[in-house]
Specification:
With 234 residues, the protein is of the alpha+beta class. It has one domain. The protein has 9 helices and 6 strands. The N and C termini lie close together (7 Å).
């Protein structure tokens, strides 16, 4: 199963009015890209989805009043831009473990991404209730980041009614920068170059983590600059 990261309005996301990188490449090459058909009961009309998203956002904003640094407000119009890329599960998982091991240096980091990486010892420690992770908005199973600032992630229903862990674009942006400074200390040129090195089976955990870091850091900048949500898609 592929893992994409989407930045844009939630109306566009839920209506399916966007392309992942594989779909874009296939279209540009004139090749048919097969994707599972949406269930018949799935709502795909943007004009019907938008009021649902806005009502969800308003309700969530009321629940978070006083705990966020700005009102929950972003562009949900048909003209809102979107951005996307594909770190893949191997890349994203490697980045998550890279962050977890960086704050648990007494543990030996694996050379390759373990098959059951979500049960890894360092990640379990980073997710413990008693531990204050420096990279909480990366390591704590977050699937949706909102374009405002708050420190604590939380579980709530998303606009589709699905239980989801929600985080902050602002906090993720800061934590990714902190991770770079704590480990690689790479400049912007180096980070951008990591994107061009495909995350294949021959890459070790660090190389895959760098690949995903390049993608995630670029997208979180897009999300912060455009003030748009950021979401995992799989």
């Amino acid at each position: 199963m592929a893992l994409d990261v989407y930045v844009g309005s939630l109306t566009r996301y839920y209506s399916g009015d966007w392309e992942n990188v594989a779909e874009k490449v296939a279209r540009e090459r004139g090749v048919q890209y097969r994707v599972p058909k949406a269930p018949r009961d799935r709502l795909t009309d943007a004009e019907r989805i938008r009021p649902v998203v806005l009502a969800w956002r308003r309700k969530l904003g009321e629940a978070l009043a006083g705990r966020v640094d700005a009102a929950l407000d972003w562009d949900e119009s048909a003209q809102a831009p979107y951005f996307t890329d594909r770190p893949g599960w191997d890349g994203f998982g490697s980045l998550v473990l890279w962050a977890a091991y960086s704050e648990h240096p007494a543990l030996r980091r694996p050379l390759q991404l373990p098959e059951e990486w979500d049960d890894d010892a360092a990640l379990v420690r980073s997710n413990a209730d008693s531990f204050k992770s420096r990279y909480s908005h990366l390591v704590r199973n977050i699937e949706l980041w909102l374009p405002c600032g708050f420190d604590v992630s939380f579980e709530a229903e998303d606009a589709a009614g699905r239980k989801t862990v929600i985080g902050s674009v602002t906090t993720l942006r800061r934590q990714l920068a902190d991770l770079n400074q704590a480990t690689w200390k790479a400049d912007a040129g180096d980070v951008a170059a990591w994107r061009g090195k495909a995350s294949d089976d021959s890459f070790d955990l660090e190389a895959r983590a760098r690949f995903a870091f390049s993608i995630m850091s670029a997208l979180v900048e897009r999300a912060a600059d455009a003030r748009l949500p950021m979401k995992l898609d799989y």
